[in-house]
Amino acid sequence: MINGLTGLALLCLSLPYLWFQCGLLGAALPVTVLLCVAYRRVWTALIWLIFGAVLVCRLEAEAQHLLPASWQHKQAELSLCLAQPPQVFDQYQRFSATVLAQPADLQLRHVRLTANANLDIQAGDCLRAQVRLRQPVGQLIPGNFNATRYFFSERIDAQGSVVELIDQTLNASLVVRWYQRAAPQFDDSRVRDIWAALALGWSASMDANLADLFEQNQIKHLMVVSGMHIGMVAAWALLLARLFHRLPGPWRGHWPVLRWVTVVSLCGAFVAITGFGFPAVRAWLMVLLPLGVMLSGGRLGGLQSMALAAVAIAAMRPQAWLSTGAWLSFGLVWVMIRLYQRWRSEGLPGWQMALRMQLLLSVFSLPMSALMGFQWHPLSLLINLLVIPLVTLIILPWSLLILVWPPLVHWGYQWLVSWGLDGLVWIARWHQPPPVLTFAEIALFAALFWLVLSHWLNREQRWLLVPLAGLLLLWPVRSTPPDEFRLTTLDVGHGLALVLEWPDQTWLYDTAGQWSDGTSIAQARLAPWFRRRHLAVDGIVISHSDNDHAGGAAWAIQRWPDARRISGEPDAVAELSGQGGWQSCHDSPPADLPFRLIATPKALRTSDNDRSCLLLVETKAGRLLITGDASRNLEYWLMQQYPQWFPLSLVVLGHHGSRTSSASGFLDASPEALLLVSAGDRARPRWPNPDLLDYLQQRQRNLLNTAWHGTIEVDVDASNNQWQVRDWRSSFRRRFLSH
């Protein structure tokens, strides 16, 4: 039977996610289930019902602060202040800020902005600036990190870019003054960033390369102030309380009160210094509440303490449970409690408990890395065994002491941290890409892990379950193929990546672009999607050599070396990919393909865009046309050369819907066609162009845009031979962030 506190905790953990994904009806599901469980317990059921209603109202109120759709890409004058320094890249800098003043019809609290790298912006600066605003929406690829959910969980109400800096003043808080006093003592900027992350909670402003280094070694969690750091401060506080309790004075004989006051005050001071970041506040509550209950004479077990903390966290910020980090932290604490209860009853020595704990947590981190898209290191167990004690026992307290006396930097701190970083750089060469598991595989892993940790089986029987992990190898190795044809337009921002699937083969049309540091978007974002679906690509078409279409060509060839290769600019793409064997789609295109390549006249191939491969697919739902970045000249040529193909039933608009393509006459030739475009929600709204959007509004035609819908999947419905459209937007995104 579920007791009242456990029921409240289950409600807090499940309701926000169901509300986010499924809306108000989804939020009603856990309340209904609990009411059924609370049979004949009227007061318990009433408490659960009231608390559930309060949570829903709180979530609805939080969503009212989001940037309205009417303000998308519009400019507003904002007054805002920075608590942390910006994270600086080559051409721009990124920072989060608290909004102090804004237009009357906005209710923004926190915004994430970008600005030119040449602007001198520091922690503690208060800015008055003209900002071009965007809704807090991120790219949406099924199974990948959900940026929209993260933004809402962190109360980031808008994104934007600084267009003009009007005024800038310094309003340095005590924490900023501490930073300004200690920063000149550091000779190595990497060491300074680590100190600021541990002592001040400034992990978001850490150098991007340094953050990547920690992720590659699977120790990035050590740089974000959370439960482990609060726990270590609490341990030091208990030690100080014990020493103080031995001194003569009125506190002698009041050990419970002294312990509670010391731990809560020192941990609270640390949370305040780090800016009341919610991971730290969450951990502080998990320390504060059980001690408070014990002080008042009550008794709580480990799991009851966690349930109480879950309720308190939801009461403070209900959307906090939308963060994957919150679940990871909570799950790890639950695992630690279960292990401690088990091994304490077995009388294991402390060093064995610590070693076993780290071993199982390292194993537990593998499915978590797969779920969150983190990189993985085969030596993570050894790395964590060495680095966790070093950071928690030495570097963290040393970092806090530097706040009091900055010259301590030169007493070995800088040498120790630099030496550790050099070792991490050397060992990071063996890091691996994120492990890719389906949700079913992760659920199976979690079930086995639960059985291993449970008290249902004795010691000998538990480890007989380990061979059951081999069931993962028997899971289906390929996603379900379509009945006839499926087109998936992946959300890659400003770029193009189309997956064309038939029952017997799969082709990839374009491979998205690259970020400013040269990293392939396909390798970072699309590779997990392909591995999760176990899709093998039989052929690759690179429309032309522009970066936003061919940025992942090298990755694609490395991933599928035996795939056929076709391009509108074979020589240029061969140079980009470092691999030859590319066949032109214009010179005698092969006939043994599941689609038709349309060879364009040489006289019309006057630019990179007009050398794009044109691709036609015949289906029972009609003809589908993909034109890459082809201009209007080629669109009119198609209508003149192949009038029998029109009207089309589906068109992937050329050049992301720019002014150079999507001529009104070309679109009028297929008045009932489904229109689809791959465009990024960029700082400047150039794609799709306003004239195209006005045309579509006048004709009352809908546009499927990846910037609005995320990844879009279009299937041929065998029952009626019509296109069946699917996207993965949550109810939250449809209700509050729709265009």
Supply the key terms.
single chain; 739 residues; alpha/beta; OB fold (Dihydrolipoamide Acetyltransferase, E2P); Metallo-beta-lactamase, Chain A; eight-stranded mixed sheet; six-stranded mixed sheet; 26 helices; globular
Strand order within the widest sheet? 12-11-10-9-8-7-19-20
Query: Quick one: how many beta strands?
Result: 20
Q: How would you sum up the global shape?
A: globular
Tell me the strand percentage band: 5-15%
Structural class: alpha/beta
The low-confidence runs, each spanning 5 or more residues with pLDDT under 50, are 460-464, 469-477
**CATH class wording of the domain at 486-736:** Alpha Beta
Helical proportion? 40-55%
Could you report the average pLDDT, rounded to the nearest whole number?
Answer: 85
End-to-end CA span? 46 Å
By CATH, the architecture of the domain at 486-736 is named 4-Layer Sandwich
Main sheet attributes: strand count, strand direction, barrel closure: 8 strands, mixed
Q: Which fold does the CATH topology of the domain at 486-736 refer to?
A: Metallo-beta-lactamase, Chain A
Describe it.
The chain is 45% helix and 14% strand. With 739 residues, the chain is α/β, with parallel strands linked by helices. Among the domains are: 60 residues, no CATH class; 101 residues, OB fold (Dihydrolipoamide Acetyltransferase, E2P), CATH 2.40.50; 251 residues, Metallo-beta-lactamase, Chain A (4-Layer Sandwich), CATH 3.60.15.10. It has an eight-stranded mixed sheet, with helices on one face. A six-stranded mixed sheet has the order 13-14-15-16-17-18. A five-stranded mixed barrel has the order 1-3-4-6-5. Strand 3 and strand 4 form a beta hairpin. Helix 8 crosses helix 9 and helix 12 runs antiparallel to helix 13. The radius of gyration is 29 Å and the shape is globular.
